[in-house]
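Observation: inputs received (chain + iron/sulfur cluster).
Thought: call the complex predictor directly.
Action: predict_structure
Action Input:
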Amino acid sequence: MSVKILIAPPASGKTQSAVDYVYQTLKQRPLAPVWVILPDREHTAVFQRRLAAAGGAMGAQIGTLGDLYHEILERAGQAYPLASNTVINTLLRSVLETLDQQGDLQHYSSIRSKPGFLQVLRDRFAELKRGLVLPEAFEQASQEKTPGLAEMARIYRAYQEKLHAIGWADREGLSWLALETLQTTPALLKDWQLAVVDGFVDFTPTQHRALRLLAETVPELVITLPGERDMERQVHRRSQRALEALSSRLDPQIDYLGAQTRLPEALSHLERRLFAGGQGPVSSNDHIHLLEVRSAAEEAREALRWLKALIVRERIPPEQCAIFTQEPDLHYRFLREAADEFGMPLRFTWGEILAQSPPVAALIGLLELPTQDFPRREILDAVRCPYFELETVGLKPRDAALLELVSLNGQVTGGQAQWRAALENLIAMPAKTASESSPLPATQEESDTLGEDRSLPELPQGEQAQRLANSLFKLILTLQAGPQRSMQAWIAWLVELLEQIHFVERCENQAWDALQEALRELMMSAMISATDAVPYGAFVLAFRSAMEGCSYKPEKEAHGVLAGRLVEAQGLRFQAVAILGLSEGIFPVVEKADPFIDEATRAELGLEAQIGRDQAGIYYQALTRSDAHLLLTRPYLAEGGEAWEASHYWRAVASLFPDSIQRVRGEEIRLLENAASPQEALFWSVRQERRPQSDESLMKRAAFVEHGRQVLQARLADECQGPYEGFPTALQGELSRRFSSDHVWSASRLESYASCPQRFYVDNALVLEAKQAPELGFNALQLGSMLHSILEQTYRRARDPRDIESVKASLSQAMTEEFTQAPQRYGFRPSPLWEAERAELSRRLVRCVENLAAESAGWTPVAFEQAFGIRGAPPLRMDTGAGVVLVRGFIDRVDRNADGELRVVDYKTGGSHLSKNDLIAGYRLQLPLYALGARQALALGEPVEGLYWNISAGEAGTLKLSKFEHQERSGIEAAIQTVNDHVARIVNGVRAAQFPPLPPKGGCPSYCPAAAWCWRYEPGF
Ligand code: SF4
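Observation:
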C-alpha cells in the first residue's frame, strides 16, 4: 500500500496533480474504481469540472467522506437511518426528561427543555464524536470536575445508548459505524485502486482514522496538503499538525511540489510574506484592494460592486467570484439587498432559519393563538395574514379592521371571554337603536363638538357584529382541536389545517419544501419516540423548536457568486475573492472559553482548544483563494459613530500593500460609470447635481428623487414653509369649499388648529385617527364621558340643585347607576382595580360638587348639556375678520343669578390649558364661545361669567371670563373679542391651506394622529 502526500503552497498545482493522478489511473485502467474525497459539495463540483476538462471523469467517484461512509455501509449491507436535527432533538428531550425524573439532572435541570440547550448538546456531542471520544472516555475525563461536566457526560452516554437502542445513527455516529465495519471487513474496498484526498488543511481524529484504514486497504492513497518545505510559518500550523499526524501513522512518501505559483506577483508576495515580516512594501498592481467603508452594509455594497465591475469589464464568470465573511449573520441581509439591487445572483452556503421565514413565522403565530388564549394583536395579524385563506370560516382580510374596532371599543386585550363579551355587546346594539341610546356622541359632528374628551368610534353592530362573532369563533373552534392527541395525530391535524386555509398555494416554494421536509422529520421523530398523547401546547412547542432547528434557502441559486463563511474557503479557487469584516472584534474573533467543556478537559480529550485557535491559518487560506483579484473590506465606524479599529489581520496585509488602501467616505464624488445599479447611478448623479439625460426610466426616477429631496429639505428647514411643510396651497380651493361660510365649526376643531395647524389638517382634513391598543380599564375618553354624564344627571335630578345635601343625594344615585353600567355602556373592561377606582372617583366627585357649591354662591344651575348648532338647535353666528362663521357646541351647565345674569360652566376631566394665557394663545376657546352661544344662539340671557371646572381636582381653572384682561381690554367682552380674533385667524388659515406643524407649548399630545410619524414631534403631556 503506498501513501503519498503532496505538499505545495496555494495555487501551485496540488489539485491539478490530484486530477492528473486520477486521469492517468483511469487512462491506464479504465475500469479501476477510483475515489476522490473532498471536504464538501462545493469542492466536489469543482473537481468534477476540472477532471472533465482534463479529459474525462468517467469511472471516478467524487464525493465527501460522508459519501465514503455510506458506500462502506452499503457494501456491507448495513443500513442505518440518519437522524436529522429534529429526530436528535426528540431523542435528547426524551433523554433529558428521563434523567431528570431519575434525579440525575441537577445542574441542567432548569434549562433542559430550552431549544438553545438542545443545540448546545447537539454541537458538543458532534464534536466529541468527531474527536473519537467515546462516552466512557468523556465520563472518565469528567470525574472530579464540575457538576455540569459530569452531567454532560451522563447525557452523552444516555443519548448514545438511546440512539443505539432504536438502531439509528447521527451523522458523526455513521462515520464510527462505517469505520468499524471497514476495520473488520477491509475486503469491502478491495477493488479500489486509488483514493485521492484533496482540499483539506487538517483532519479530525475520525478523519485520521478513516485515512489510516484507507491506507491499509487501498493500493494507492494520495493526500494533498497546503504548505511548504519549511512549515515554520504560523499560517501553516494546521497543515504541519496534519502532516505530523499522517507521518506518524501512515509512513507516507512526501513530495514537495515546485513552489512556483501561477499567481500574479502581488498575490504571490502576499502568500509568501503574510505574517512573515521582513521585506518592505510592494505595489499591489491593482490585484489587491483594501477598502475601508463606513458600515457592514457598505462593505456588502462595495464588495458586490467591485465584483460586478470584474464580471462586466473583465468577463470573469460569476461562478469564479466569491465573498467570504466570518459573520454571516451580520452581512447576510446586506448582501441580499445589494445583490437584488445590482441584479447579481448570489449562492449562499448557509440558509435562513425556517422559523423566521415569513410564512412559517405566520403559521407558528397562528398555531400559538390557543396557547396564548387568542391575544388581540395576534388575532388581527392572523386575519390579515396573506398566507392564510380564512374564508372557510367566513373571515376576510378586511375583517381585521372591524375586529380591531371591536377590540378597541370593547377594550379586548386578549382571551376568548373578552372577544365574546365585546362582540355580544355590539350584537345587542342594532345600528339605529345603538346610536340613539348610546351615551357616546351619536354622530361625528357631535363627537367633534364634544371635544377630545369624548369622541365616537365607528363600530360593527347588530348583524355585522353577529357575522364577525360567528366567523371568529369558528376560527377559534378550528384551532382548538381537543386536549390531547398523539404527535402523529397532531401532525396529521396540522396538515389538514394547512389544506383548509390554502397555505400551500400561498406559501413560497422554498419555504413550503422545507416545511414539508421538517414535518416529515417531525413525524419520524414522533414515531421513534412513540410518546403517549400530548397536549396541544406540547405539540406547538415541538413544532416551533423543529422549525427553529431547520434552515432553508429562500432562493434556489445553482449559479452565481459564492457567498460563504471564511472557514469554508479552504481548498477552493476563484478569479476574484472579497473578504469582509476585517475590523477589531469581527475577525479574528474574540475567543472565549467554552462554558460547557473547559479547556483542560478539551486538551485531555484531544478536542480543539477554544482559546488560541488557528484563526491565522483560516485567514491565510481565505486570502490565498484568488488567482487574480483580491478585495479586503472593513467598517471604520461603529454603530454609535465612533471610530472602529482595523484588525491586526487587516494591518498585516496593509503593511505589505500600503498603496492599495482606500477609504470610501459618504460625501465622496463617485464616477457614474462605477455605479452598479440604476438606483445608484441616479443617486450619485443627483448628489453631483448632474441629471442622467439618456435613460427614460432614470429620468422618471430622477424626478421622483428630486421630489423627495425637496420634501426632505422642507422638513429639515427651521421655518416651516412650502407645500411639503404645512402649506399645501393647491388645496386652497377644496378647503375653501369644505370650510366655507356654511360650515359649522366646533370649538374643539378651532382649538385643534390653534394648538397645531398640522394636527388639525391630519385630524380634520385627512380624517386620520390615532388608534391606541386597548388596555384593561377605561381610557381618558370613557372617563370623560362617565364623569360628564354623572354630573349632568346629578344636577338635573337634584330636588334643589342649590342645596348641597340634595345634590349629594342625587350624586350618590347617579354614581351608582353610571358606574354599574359603565363597562357595558362605554365598552371597557374593568381592571382588577375597578372597585378601587370607583371609590376614588366617587370621593373626587363628592369633593367636586361640594367645592362647586362653595364656588356657586348666588348661582342656580338652570340648564345642562345645552346644544347649539346641533340636534336641530341654531348655530352661533359670529361676525369675524373671516366673514360670518357658524359655531356649534354643548354647554355642560348654565347658571343664573338673582339678576338673571348667566354663568357658563364647562367641565374638564384634566387640568391642563385652563388658564387665561391658554385663551390668549388660542389653545382654549370654549368658554367665550359658549358664553356667546348662550347669549346669541340659545337666547338664554346675558352671560357675565364663565369658568372651566376641573372635576378631578374639584376646583375652577384659573381663567374666569369676568376677570379676563388682554390688550387693554377686560371682562367677558375682552374674552369674546379675543376669541373672535382667533376664529378669524383660524378660519382664514384653514381656507388658505396653512397647516405648519408647530408643536404646542408643553409638547405634542400623545393622541395627535400624526404623533407616530411627524418629524417635528416633541414629546409632551
Ligand atoms: S406631532 Fe406635534 S407638531 Fe406634529 S402635528 Fe402633532 S401636534 Fe403638530
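Thought: report the result.
Final Answer: The first helix runs from residue 14 to 28. Residues 164 and 173 are 10 Å apart (CA to CA).
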